[in-house]
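Renewal narrative, Specific Aim 1. Our central claim is that a sequence can be written position by position from structural information alone. The example that follows is taken directly from our test logs and has not been curated for this report. It begins with the structure tokens describing the chain, in the order in which they were read.
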């Protein structure tokens, strides 16, 4: 399931970067509540959000969603 892979990948990237939801929210300009919903598998990110995350973590959108290993 892509969504589960995304949330696990995001959690790992945040951990590796020592980021919490609030700090990531400020860094990429996305509401903390949206990040929380992604991490809890309640919502999926928009393509724009995926682009922002990929740029921030310097990885591809495919890596974020689990189509390619990070």
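The sequence written for that structure reads:
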């Amino acid at each position: 399931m892509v969504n589960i892979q995304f949330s696990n990948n995001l959690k790992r990237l945040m951990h590796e970067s020592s980021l919490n939801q609030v700090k990531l929210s400020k860094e990429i300009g996305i509401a903390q509540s949206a990040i929380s919903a992604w991490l809890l598998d309640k919502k999926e990110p928009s393509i724009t959000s995926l682009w922002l995350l990929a740029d921030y973590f310097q990885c591809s959108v495919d890596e974020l969603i689990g189509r390619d290993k990070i």
